[in-house]
């Protein structure tokens, strides 16, 4: 597949609003139960698709926010929610989306400890800690990825997918984006409708030639991978920089361009004004590439025109 000029590339859909206080309270209540297997099953028996989606959209809203350190507050909620999602067949695809994002909460918690609190001025409320810098993020993700196991699906999928990326004119190392997006799970589905190994949104997938009906071709791992590679190639030819390209893959081309217009030419220039997930997504992928391919994003060759 080749991406034709003029194809519209759509940003991520807006996430429906969720009461985040309810989300936090739910997580605290579940965690307080010290769930054993019997209690987990009892909860799972009454845990339906709509409830799961509501909670997940609350987490997605946090990823779409701008303040990375806020994610640390949701670690216990996510840890309680994940086994529930994995219990039910109808919510298992959401677990495939949440599992590779669990370390976002851990890294946010580490950064919360590492970044000192600003000085409190008399008579004023305590200010927030600043968002981590890209350098702090890269350092934290290098440590996190080094101690995490390699995705179980990588051994099977990486050799099969690298030729597809090569055929699309994209560096083969970028197949590892699937570890960040889905942990190499072809069934993974986000709460806003992205599906598959490389988490393609419906409109983006259709604009690149995939069909959603009668069968969703995004669930075909090789079609998903080829389409993701074509999309990455398109974005690189717009941004001419792999860090910005990967940021645009996650946050949307429009969001990255808008942020750059307000000042900045590189990912490091604009990182702290992007969504929290994107601030972590780019350095996480880079840490994965260093571990698996001994390369950074800056060392990858350009996509073919």
Structure characterization notes:
The structure is a single chain. This protein is 56% helix and 0% strand. It is an all-alpha fold and 305 residues long. Helix 1 (20-32) crosses helix 4, helix 4 (75-87) packs antiparallel against helix 5 (92-98) and helix 12 packs across helix 15 (276-293). Residues 1-21 and 30-35 have low confidence and may be disordered.
Question: What are its keywords?
Answer:
15 helices, single chain, mainly alpha, 305 residues, disordered N terminus
User: What is the N-to-C order of secondary-structure elements (H for helix, E for strand)?
Assistant: HHHHHHHHHHHHHHH
**Could you estimate the helical fraction of the residues in percent?**
55-70%
The multimeric state of the shown protein is single chain
Kindly state the number of beta strands.
0
Structural class: mainly alpha
**CA radius of gyration:** 19 Å
**Overall pLDDT, averaged?**
87
Shape: globular
Low-confidence region ranges: 1-21, 30-35
The biggest sheet, with number of strands, parallel, antiparallel or mixed sense and barrel status, is:
none
The fraction of residues in strands falls at under 5%
Number of helices: 15
Distance between the termini: 14 Å
In short, what is this structure?
The chain has 305 residues and is mostly helical.
SSE blueprint and pairings:
Blueprint: H1 20-32, H2 37-45, H3 49-64, H4 75-87, H5 92-98, H6 102-114, H7 134-147, H8 154-167, H9 177-182, H10 202-207, H11 221-239, H12 242-251, H13 253-261, H14 267-270, H15 276-293
């Amino acid at each position: 597949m080749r991406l034709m000029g003029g194809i519209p590339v759509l940003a991520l859909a807006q996430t429906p609003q969720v009461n985040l206080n309810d989300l936090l309270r739910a997580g605290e209540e579940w965690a307080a139960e010290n769930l054993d297997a019997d209690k987990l099953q009892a909860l799972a028996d009454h845990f339906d698709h709509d409830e799961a989606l509501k909670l997940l959209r609350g987490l997605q809203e946090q990823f779409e926010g701008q303040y990375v350190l806020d994610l640390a507050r949701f670690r216990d909620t996510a840890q309680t929610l994940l086994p529930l999602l994995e219990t039910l067949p109808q919510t298992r695809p959401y677990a495939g989306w949440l599992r590779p994002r669990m370390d976002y909460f851990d890294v946010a918690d580490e950064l919360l400890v590492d970044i000192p609190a600003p000085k409190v001025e008399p008579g004023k409320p305590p200010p927030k800690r600043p968002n981590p810098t890209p350098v702090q993020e890269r350092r934290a993700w290098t440590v996190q990825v080094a101690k995490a196991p390699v995705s179980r699906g990588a051994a099977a999928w990486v050799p099969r997918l690298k030729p597809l990326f090569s055929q699309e004119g994209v560096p083969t190392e970028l197949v590892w984006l699937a570890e960040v997006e889905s942990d190499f799970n072809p069934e993974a589905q986000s709460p806003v409708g992205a599906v598959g190994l490389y988490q393609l949104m419906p409109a983006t997938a259709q604009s690149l030639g995939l069909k959603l009906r009668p069968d969703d071709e995004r669930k075909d791992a090789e079609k998903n991978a080829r389409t993701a590679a074509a999309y990455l190639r398109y974005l690189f030819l717009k941004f001419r920089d792999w860090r910005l390209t990967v940021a645009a893959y996650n946050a949307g081309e429009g969001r990255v361009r808008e942020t750059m217009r307000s000042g900045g030419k590189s990912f490091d220039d604009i990182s702290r004004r992007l969504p929290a997930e994107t601030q972590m997504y780019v350095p996480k992928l880079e840490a994965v590439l260093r571990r698996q391919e001994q390369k950074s994003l800056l060392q990858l060759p350009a996509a073919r025109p």
